[in-house]
Write a structure and sequence with these properties.
Elements: H1 22-53, H2 59-81, H3 100-110, H4 113-125, E1 131-138, E2 143-150, E3 161-167, H5 174-177, H6 181-188, H7 194-206
Antiparallel strand pairs: 1-2, 1-3
Helix pairs in contact: 1-2, 4-6
Length: 215
């Protein structure tokens, strides 16, 4: 079976400056994200060993570990792609930029882009402890929702597909923003890659999903 691997960054360490410093990007990607990849692979090996030996005393901890590390790997993989340099990113998604369907969906789901931005900002900035603010596609209703994710995997709607993620863990900002999480979240809007978010929205809408077969 294939193992999880750390994806390469789509830009160099300095590409998101001054919003996110090169030092933070390097540590965040090469150390923190890499640790989640290793954690997921190690846990899969431990689960395989438990199956082989039929020793299930640690199953609860192993399942929790897999959810934590795998979700951390997935969210970080989206996070890097969700951002681009300040000269190319940020602003508001507009139809003339080729992201009109996303812009319309944000207005339909949240009343306005301003309403969406305010909700995601507040959700990310007020996470208790470690977590994420996430814009997700909810396939049962076909609408966009904002989720406040605890750690990497808690407090999410089953079946929801993350398309824009703001990392609110301290390792994402503390070296530069200290304890001012809200300042970091506000700054993040300047590097959002709306082209990537729009592609993820289109992919989420078109994917087969068992929830859509529910009566």
């Amino acid at each position: 079976m294939p193992v999880y691997t750390l994806p390469d960054l789509p830009y160099d360490y300095s590409a998101l400056a001054p919003v996110i410093s090169p030092e933070i990007i390097e540590l965040h990607h090469d150390k923190h994200h890499a640790a989640y990849v290793k954690g997921a692979n190690d846990t899969l090996e431990q689960l395989a060993e438990a199956r082989d030996k039929e020793t299930w005393g640690s199953i609860n901890g192993l399942e929790k570990s897999l959810a934590f590390h795998l979700s951390g790997h997935i969210l970080h993989s989206i996070y890097w792609q969700n951002m681009t340099g300040p000269k190319e990113g940020g602003g508001e998604p507009l139809a003339q930029d080729g992201v009109g369907e996303l812009a319309d969906a944000l207005t339909e789901s949240f009343g306005s882009f301003a309403g969406f931005k305010a909700q995601l900002t507040k959700a990310a900035a007020t996470t208790q402890g470690s977590g994420w603010g996430v814009l997700a596609y909810e396939p049962l209703s076909g609408r966009l929702i904002v989720e406040q994710v605890y750690d990497h995997q808690g407090n999410v709607g089953q079946g929801s597909v993350p398309i824009l993620v703001f990392d609110a863990w301290e390792h994402a900002f503390y070296l530069q923003y200290k304890n001012q999480k809200v300042d970091f979240i506000d700054a993040m809007w300047a590097v959002v890659n709306w082209q990537d978010v729009a592609k993820r929205y289109e992919a989420a809408k078109s994917r087969p999903d068992a929830l859509l077969l529910a009566p």
